[in-house]
């Protein structure tokens, strides 16, 4: 008869854990041990490149040889990550002699401890054991992870919110599996905020979230999770509509593109909305196209919140400056073709006194130039680049509404792209790519 395992949360910070083996199993196990702060000793004649990188970075100690019993001196736990049963058995025999728990990758039945399938959600860790069946554990873990993604806040507190698009509240807790709330901060930039949404339980906060270039699946997992927690979403014109479509009906949606006044006044208005809602206790997501800090004015919004004492989390996004070329089959760098790429705004004409861009210097570069917001001034921009030495036959492309169902791609040359653009009637949002990488992957 096999008795049930007894679940524990091991607090390994500063404690020696010995990992025997340097292959793929060890590569998968070591990061979680390091995340727990363990003092990891790796014993293996050879390492995978990923483990070697951890060693080179000074994150763990490596003994480049086969296991010897004294390796377990001072150890609290040993992970045997080798598939040679004889060698594994001899490690676990030494561990048993010394009363050190031993996890075995080669034979779970011979192990004195099992590693569970794990999902982490802020400070909450859920560990699932499947009665010796790792697949069962993973299936259950995946289901719980999906549930927690929508029912717990990033601070690990139970949310009264449901998944976007679904109704009803939720309670916290994970009956039947181990769930440990360790407390602690969630990476907020500053303290502040008053009151709390949901009966004063939490203070207001702002998350500046990059929504990605257009495909709703290109938001990050963290960005998506924060969106599911929001009371208020302040969205830009270019954020994927489907993301908004899935918000809960009770979420206040502020369409930032509809705020009147000129661009700078509108920005002040947006800053004020973020601050006011957060100070009133709301969880606010400022959802921005691409990455919040790439021509996104995210920095101004962060400073405004910080000045008001509102905590801010910044979640980077997939920027159109890289995603749009990629979606058109254009890598921004390619070995032997381009060793640099430069992202530049074309919203001001090259001869504008307000322009901060050295177009003459950019013309001298050999690599890839990615121009955002450049359609209106494209004729002037291409003429300036050519006048300062970039050859007119340099390949160029325009990618409109990249990663969406209405994506369009125009391929041309630097000398002709402005005229071709007009003829093809391409419109913003679009990215212009200049350089030999355009066409590199064409068969
Ligand atoms: C104000 S900037 C914001 C850029 C955004 N923060 C980013 O990282 O992608 C807007 C410009 O980004 C580019 N852009 C954004 N989304 C795009 C898309 N799906 N396809 C092509 N260009 C896009 C266009 O040049 C557009 O004029």
Can you describe what's shown?
There is one protein chain. The chain has 443 residues and is α/β, with parallel strands linked by helices. The protein is built from 13 helices and 18 strands. Strand 4, helix 3 and strand 5 (101-104) form a beta-alpha-beta unit. Helix 8 packs across helix 9 (298-307). The radius of gyration is 27 Å and the shape is globular. S-adenosylmethionine is lined by residues 213-214, 238, 288-291, 294-296, 319-321, 324, 372-373, 399, 401-403, 428-431.
Question: What's a concise summary of this model?
Answer:
By secondary structure, this protein is an alpha/beta fold. The protein has helices spanning 24-35, 49-56, 85-97, 134-151, 197-200, 221-229, 241-245, 263-279, 298-307, 320-327, 359-363, 378-387, 417-424; strands spanning 16-20, 39-43, 61-63, 75-80, 101-104, 117-121, 124-128, 178-181, 205-210, 232-235, 252-255, 283-288, 312-315, 341-345, 368-372, 395-400, 408-413, 430-434.
> What is the end-to-end distance?
62 Å
- Per DSSP, what share of the residues sits in E-state strands of 2 or more residues? 15-25%
- Helix fraction? 25-40%
Q: Name the poorly predicted regions.
A: 159-201
Strand order of the largest sheet: 3-2-1-4-5
Tally of helical runs: 13
Shape: globular
Largest sheet: 5 strands, parallel
Number of beta-strand segments: 18
The hetero compounds bound to this protein are: S-adenosylmethionine
**Rg over C-alpha atoms, rounded to the nearest angstrom:** 27 Å
Structural class: alpha/beta
Question: How much is the average pLDDT?
Answer: 86
């Amino acid at each position: 008869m096999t008795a049930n395992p007894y679940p524990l949360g091991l607090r390994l910070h500063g404690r020696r854990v010995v990992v025997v083996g340097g292959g793929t199993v060890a590569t998968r196990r070591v990061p979680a041990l390091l995340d727990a702060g363990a003092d990891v000793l790796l014993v293996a004649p050879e390492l995978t490149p990923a483990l070697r990188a951890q060693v080179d970075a000074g994150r763990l100690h490596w003994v480049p040889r086969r296991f010897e019993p004294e390796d377990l001196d001072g150890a609290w736990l040993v992970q045997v990550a080798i598939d040679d049963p004889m060698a594994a058995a001899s490690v676990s025999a030494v561990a048993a002699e010394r009363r050190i728990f031993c996890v075995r990758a080669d034979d779970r039945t011979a192990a004195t401890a099992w590693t569970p399938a794990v999902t982490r959600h802020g400070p909450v860790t859920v560990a699932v054991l499947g009665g010796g069946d790792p697949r069962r554990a993973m299936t259950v873990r995946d289901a719980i992870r999906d549930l927690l993604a929508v029912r717990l806040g990033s601070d690990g507190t139970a949310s009264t919110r449901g998944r976007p698009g679904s109704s009803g509240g939720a309670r916290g807790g994970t009956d039947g599996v181990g769930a440990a709330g360790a407390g602690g901060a969630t990476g907020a930039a500053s303290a502040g905020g008053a009151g709390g949404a949901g009966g004063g339980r939490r203070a207001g906060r702002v998350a500046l979230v990059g929504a990605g270039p257009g495909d709703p699946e290109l938001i990050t997992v963290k960005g998506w999770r924060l969106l599911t927690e929001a009371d208020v979403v302040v969205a830009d014109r270019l954020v994927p509509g489907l993301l908004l479509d899935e918000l809960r009906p009770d979420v206040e949606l502020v369409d930032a593109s509809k705020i009147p006044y000129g661009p700078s006044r509108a920005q002040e208005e947006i800053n004020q909305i973020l601050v006011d809602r957060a100070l009133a206790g709301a969880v606010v997501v400022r959802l921005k196209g691409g990455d919040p800090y790439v021509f996104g004015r995210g920095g101004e919004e962060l400073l405004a919140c910080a000045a008001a004492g509102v905590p801010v989390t910044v979640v980077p996004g997939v920027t159109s400056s890289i995603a749009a070329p990629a979606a058109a089959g254009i890598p921004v760098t390619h070995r032997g073709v381009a060793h640099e790429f430069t992202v530049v705004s074309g919203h001001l004409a090259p001869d504008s006194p307000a322009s901060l861009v050295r177009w003459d210097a950019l013309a001298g570069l050999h690599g890839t130039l990615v121009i955002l917001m450049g359609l209106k001034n494209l004729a002037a921009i291409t003429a300036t680049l050519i006048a300062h030495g970039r050859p007119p036959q340099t390949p160029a492309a325009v990618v409109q509404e990249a990663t969406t169902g209405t994506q369009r791609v125009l391929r041309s040359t630097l000398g002709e792209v402005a005229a071709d653009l007009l003829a093809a009637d391409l419109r913003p949002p679009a990215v212009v790519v200049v350089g030999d990488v355009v066409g590199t992957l064409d068969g």
